[in-house]
Design brief:
Its EC number is 1.17.1.4. With 773 residues, this protein is α+β, with helices and mostly antiparallel strands. It folds into four domains: 153 residues, Aldehyde oxidase/xanthine dehydrogenase, molybdopterin binding domain (Aldehyde Oxidoreductase, domain 4, 2-Layer Sandwich), CATH 3.30.365.10; 198 residues, Aldehyde oxidase/xanthine dehydrogenase, a/b hammerhead (Aldehyde Oxidoreductase, domain 3, Alpha-Beta Complex); 131 residues, Aldehyde Oxidoreductase, domain 4 (2-Layer Sandwich); 230 residues, Aldehyde Oxidoreductase, domain 4, CATH 3.30.365. Helices cover 28% and strands 24% of the residues. The protein is built from 21 helices and 27 strands. The radius of gyration is 28 Å and the shape is globular.
């Protein structure tokens, strides 16, 4: 008989919903002592150079100032900041190029001094009172110019400012490209610098307790944060404790170690008193992390029958001033090139290059939104050159069922791409719309476009993948569950509770997830990134749940005299499987076991699981846009995302994830870009007034649907969803504009400034700006 609870697959309300909507949830700032000292950072006002001297005398005179720390005071312990799992092999460790404060300024906004004061006013006044003398050096903001001989050298170890260069060679590109009768399609594609714009800016506070440093931080990666703080302070990692409360979003910005090491150091300089470091929105834009701006160059040689003969790919990733996540983002983008549309003859190169700009790090999609814009824009360009419908061209060339990647060993177990495209085509009424908008004139035009995306789950085999879980049985038969994977607003805790309930055999409402992570208490886990959490945590949850269930059944054997193999835990009850008889509730069992005078025991289970699997997660976007040619403006009138993310643990949360990613992608496509002054390197629009963030007023009704193909490598059949929704809308919007106007836009964001120039080149508007249609 069927004995397993199926608690996953249902749209349960989020476990943290009530606390968050009522304002009861405690975030970092809510927990901080109101009497804490306040720290503020002095950021550089040049893009490149050295700090020659710092005069802190006036700052130190300000009432309430406790301590002023400069770049000349801090220890020279270089540390990495990327939220990657640690490796004991030096070759696989992140680049350690950061100091707590620096005298070698590498971007406008670099950290040169810090103030600790009794209140925010005194701290702000003191920062303004510090006088810095700089030795200015030439700087470079353009990734291509940074690679030239004679360009300003940003880091001594990296010639021509190239942090890393990797390549892929399959077949013989040069020979294959000379095949007679081929059609050559070539394009350059540019993606911008953008910022995450999560609601809660980065914030942390630190204090000392029993000789150890405790940091409470809005971080996605508490266990990784512990290690980096230890490295930065050059103390044993066990002397550092990290606590992560509720977090107000991160999207990858908080997958970097931002100011936790500095805050930890500052508390050691003021006798262990609590020091709070709260970053402003302007600082978040400049001195935290941004998404890599990447330039792509793609050449495709295509046969008249629509098959690829040879393809070439180049990308140039703007890393900014420090390594952070470094080359992994550009490398992931390149890695999908030979997989998305398999071709026997591939030549691919990608470069990650330092510039004197804000530091680039992880952001939702991890290089794939950039790569998909280039690849899927190019796909429409190829289809147009062949005179083939873009949908048909994709159906004929996209990754087939059974495809296996030689490196990751990922297998495409289903014909996912075609299933998703077929569903999207039907649900969006794509063919009818495409025909309707095929021959338009006039100033206002509409068009439809589509794109697909490639994604994988987690970081294996590039880095460690592991998950640990602890479950404790309470007196009433409910359980507490703790994981190193972090809730950052995406609903992970709810999915964990559903999976745990299913594994143990109890109802969903009998699972209590400990949402806060504390490195002194929480089992080791690497945190929230790489769309890994539901997939990876599933292994340890299932394993630990089965362990706890066996302990429950062993106890039931003692209490009921029934054979363990003839019992199961179903819906919170001990059930005899031979006849379905309910013998007792788990609550009755737990109470008896905890308070027994003869055989007392505390039932708990804990385990870790190293995951050596990865999984593809695919899908597509269909979009309709309306273009006002004279106003040089496009807006989305309809959009649909289709995903195969395996079995849905919580359909409502899955849809919410898709909507959030689509929202971010609309802004990425049409409005968002962080601009820099070419004369000074200063960011020009590092605020929410001038940075044109997309809002719900810029969106149509967001629609998402799913193909549920059970992922065979995972115990719950699930795989990544958090980042994929942000990957394909931008090129779909671009391709819709292409159908509406005939103009192929190769630069994001496709804002009026870009549309004006391209429409003018295409003859759609006259020199004075009037529509020529």
């Amino acid at each position: 008989m069927e004995t397993r609870n199926h608690e996953s697959g249902k749209s349960y309300k989020r476990v943290d919903a009530f606390e968050k909507v009522t304002g009861r949830a405690k975030y970092t700032d809510d927990l901080c002592d109101r009497n804490a000292y306040v720290a503020k950072i002095l950021h550089s006002t040049i893009a490149h150079g050295y700090v020659k001297s710092i005069d802190t005398s006036e700052a130190e005179k300000i009432p309430g100032v406790v301590k002023v720390i400069t770049c000349f005071d801090v220890p020279k312990n270089y540390f990495p900041t990327a939220g990657h799992p640690w490796s004991t092999e030096p070759a696989h460790q992140d680049v350690a190029d950061r100091l707590l404060l620096t005298d070698h300024v590498r971007f406008y906004g670099d950290d040169v001094a810090a103030v600790v004061a009794e209140d925010e006013v005194a701290a702000a006044q003191a920062v303004r009172a510090i006088k810095v003398e700089y030795e200015e050096l030439p700087f470079v903001l353009d990734v291509h110019k940074a690679m030239e001989d004679g360009a300003p050298q940003i880091h001594e170890k990296y010639q021509n400012n190239i942090l890393a260069h990797t390549s892929i060679r399959n077949g013989n590109y040069e020979e294959a490209s000379r095949e007679p009768g081929l059609i050559k399609v070539e394009g350059w594609y540019h993606t911008p610098t953008v910022q995450h714009c999560h609601i809660e800016n980065f914030i942390c506070y630190a204090y000392m307790e029993q000789g150890r440093v405790v940091v409470v931080s809005s971080t996605q990666i508490p266990h990784i944060c512990r290690r980096v703080v230890g490295q930065a302070l050059n103390v044993p990692w066990g002397q550092v404790r990290i606590i992560k409360p509720y977090i107000g979003g991160g999207f990858g910005n908080k997958q970097d170690i931002l100011y936790e090491p500095l805050c930890a150091y500052l508390t050691t300089q003021v006798g262990g008193r609590t020091v709070k470091l709260d970053v402003s929105r302007e600082e978040t834009f400049v001195s935290n992390r941004v998404r890599h701006s990447i330039d792509f160059h793609i050449i495709s040689y295509v046969r008249p029958d629509g098959t690829y003969a040879a393809r070439k790919f180049e990308s140039f990733s703007d890393q900014g001033a420090y390594a952070s996540h470094g080359h992994s983002i550009a490398a992931k983008g390149m890695g999908c090139f030979p997989q998305l549309y398999p071709c026997p003859n591939i030549e691919a190169d990608t470069y990650t290059v330092f510039t004197n700009k804000s530091v680039s790090g992880a952001m939702r999609g991890y290089g794939i939104p950039q790569a998909m814009f280039a690849m899927e824009s190019h796909t429409d360009d190829v289809a147009k050159a062949l005179g083939v419908p873009p949908y048909e061209f994709r159906m004929n060339n996209v990754m087939p069922k059974g495809f296996t990647d030689g490196f990751s060993k990922n297998v495409n177990y289903y014909d996912t791409f075609r299933e998703c495209m077929e569903k999207g085509r039907k649900d969006f009424d794509y063919d009818a719309r495409r025909e309707k908008y095929a021959h338009q004139t006039g100033n206002i035009r509409r068009g439809v476009g589509m794109s697909v995306f490639w994604y994988n789950t987690g970081v294996w085999p590039i880095s460690l993948e592991t998950s640990a879980c602890r479950m404790v049985l309470n007196q009433d038969g409910s359980i507490q569950i703790q994981l190193g994977e972090t809730e950052i607003g995406q609903g992970a805790d709810t999915a964990f509770a559903q999976m745990a309930a299913e594994a143990v055999g109890i109802p969903f409402d009998m699972v209590h997830v400990v949402s806060s992570q504390d490195t002194d208490v929480t089992p080791f886990g690497t945190g929230a990134y790489a769309s890994r959490q539901t997939y990876m945590a599933g292994f340890s949850i299932r394993q630990t749940g089965e362990m706890l269930k066996q302990k429950i059944l062993e106890t039931a054997c003692e209490l009921t005299r029934q054979m363990k193999e003839n019992m199961d835990v179903i819906d919170g009850n001990i059930v005899r499987t031979t006849d379905g008889e309910v013998l007792m509730s788990v609550g009755e069992l737990a109470t008896e076991k905890l308070y027994s005078l003869t055989n007392n025991g505390h039932l708990t289970a804990e385990s870790s699981y190293q995951i050596k699997n990865n999984a593809y997660s695919f899908g597509c976007t269909f979009v309709e846009v309306e273009v006002d040619i004279q106003a040089c403006k496009a807006h989305v009138t309809d959009i649909l995302n289709v995903h195969d993310c395996g079995r849905l643990i919580n359909p409502a949360l899955a849809e919410a994830q898709a909507h959030g990613g689509m929202s971010m992608a609309i802004g990425y496509a049409l409005s968002e870009t962080l601009l820099f002054d070419e004369k000074t390197g200063k960011p020009l629009n590092n605020n929410l007034l001038d940075y044109k963030l997309s809002t719900f007023m810029d969106h149509p009704d967001l629609k998402a649907t799913f193909i549920e193909n059970f992922e065979p490598t995972n115990p719950y059949g699930t795989k990544s969803l958090g980042e994929p929704p942000a990957c394909s809308p931008a090129p779909a919007i671009r391709n819709a504009i292409l159908q509406a106007t005939g103009v192929a836009l190769d630069e994001l964001p496709m804002r009026p400034h870009v549309l004006f120039e391209e429409f003018k080149k295409a003859g759609l508007i006259q020199e004075g700006g009037e529509a020529n249609v």
